[in-house]
Amino acid sequence: MRHRDMNRDWIATASTLSQALPYLQRYEGATVVIKFGGHAMIDDAAMDGFARDIVLMRQVGVNPVVVHGGGPMINDMLKRLDIKSEFVNGKRVTDAATVEVVEAVLSGLVNKRIVQAINRQGGRAVGLSGKDSNLMTCDQTNASLGFVGTPTDIDPAILRTLTQAENIPVIAPIGAGRNGETFNVNGDTAAGAIAASLAADRLLLLTDVEGVKDKAGNVLTEITPTQIRELTKDGTIAGGMIPKTETALAAIEGGVRAVVILDGRAPNACLLELFTDHGAGSLIRTPR
Ligand SMILES: Nc1ncnc2c1ncn2[C@@H]1O[C@H](COP(=O)(O)OP(=O)(O)O)[C@@H](O)[C@H]1O
Ligand SMILES: CC(=O)N[C@@H](CCC(=O)OP(=O)(O)O)C(=O)O
After folding, report:
1. What are the boundaries of the signal sequence (predicted)?
2. 201 is in which domain, residue-wise?
3. Residue 73 falls within a domain, yes or no?
4. Residue 211 alpha carbon, nearest atom of ligand 1
5. What is the arrangement of strands in the sheet containing 149-154, beginning at the earlier edge strand?
6. Secondary structure of residue 47 in the 3-state scheme
7. 37 CB within 6 A, ligand 2
8. Is the CB of 192 under 6 A from ligand 2?
9. Distance 125 CA to ligand 2 centre (A)
10. Annotated binding residue at 184?
11. Alpha helices per DSSP H over the chain
């Protein structure tokens, strides 16, 4: 009995691999930008699973570009330093002291943790922030948010150099201001702007919910720009989901072929989305 069950498992595994062929062919040479949110990095196992998926993508000829968040890790450090922090529409109000902590945590602790996790799985990850090689120049979003930036100029040349050499860029969402300022950029916003600059085939926004939910709490497997606007207006899309859906709309308008908002805590979330017919999360694509 036990033998027969094991056989069945192996057959299912082989069948999944075989079914992946058309997807592997479709995504060979494609650019996929993955936003890894702070809430998706729940523990070492989630980090290692994510790293493994990214290395597998690279191995089969996809060009993965990782943009990360780290909101909960910034909160921890601010708490340790006794600095108060608040959010307005999913964006952290960032004063001069806060932006120093944000940069240290994102470009230092979080970025290097992801780089190391990918490299331990056999990949070649290179960590950078928007300041490196003029990758992301920003203007202030709104005076009331302090040092929060909106990307205005993205120079993706360094990303192309790295991906052509089969390296995996891992980007902290810190932007350079025109007058030497450091700007805190929401991770989703940064990922969307970078994906648009690369005319990416897919932007995957990994988070801690299964997707965008409607009023009744059901996950919408596909969501149109009109639905997003309506659900935001009536408050169904709120908090941290606002920058995600705003990003999805801007990315689609900016030339990204499709955006998926999905649960990064689910094992192999990225592989499931790209290489199987199950898909995952909420898909937003250019209206046809
Ligand atoms: N309509 C909605 N559907 C799904 N999640 C929503 C919705 N509105 C608000 N949210 C909230 O948005 C959160 C995701 O944003 P956030 O916490 O910033 O994630 P991350 O750290 O992964 O970027 C969810 O955990 C959920 O609480
Ligand atoms: C302006 C702004 O809000 N920046 C975010 C940057 C980190 C981030 O986006 O992290 P998650 O993806 O984990 O939420 C912050 O300070 O928390």
Report:
1. none
2. 25-285
3. yes
4. 4
5. 149-154, 136-140, 174-177, 182-184
6. helix
7. yes
8. no
9. 22
10. yes
11. 2-19, 21-27, 44-59, 71-80, 96-103, 111-120, 157-164, 187-197, 225-233, 241-253, 269-275
Q: How far apart are CA 138 and CA 151, in angstroms?
A: 4
Residue 239 domain flag: yes
Q: Which band of pLDDT confidence, cut at 50, 70 and 90, is reported for residue 277?
A: confident
Distance (Å, whole) CA 173 – CA 36:
11
Compute CA distances 77 → 94, 164, 218, whole Å: 14, 36, 35
CA of 220 to the centre of ligand 2 (A): 24
Plot region of 29 (φ>0 → left; ψ -120 to 50 → alpha; else → beta): left
| Helix, strand, coil percentages, rounded to 5, for the chain | 45, 25, 30
How many domains does the chain fold into? 1
Ligand-binding site membership of 71 (annotated): yes
Q: How many CA atoms lie within 13 A of 70 on its CB side?
A: 30
| Residue-wise pLDDT tens digits, 126-177 | 999 999 999 999 999 999 999 999 999 999 999 999 999 999 999 999 999 9
- Residue 14 C-alpha to ligand 2 middle, in angstroms? 40
Q: Is 70 annotated as a binding residue?
A: yes
Task: Determine how β-strand 87-88 pairs with β-strand 91-92.
Answer: antiparallel
Does the predicted TM-score (pTM) go above 0.90? Answer: yes
Atom of ligand 2 nearest to the CA of 36: 12
Residue 240 Cβ < 6 Å to ligand 1: yes
Note whether residue 130 is domain-resident. yes
Residue 115 within a domain:
yes
Q: What φ, ψ does residue 82 adopt, rounded to 5°?
A: 60, 40
Residue 110 Cβ contacting ligand 1 at under 6 Å: no
CATH of residue 175: 3.40.1160.10
- 40 CB less than 6 Å from ligand 1? yes
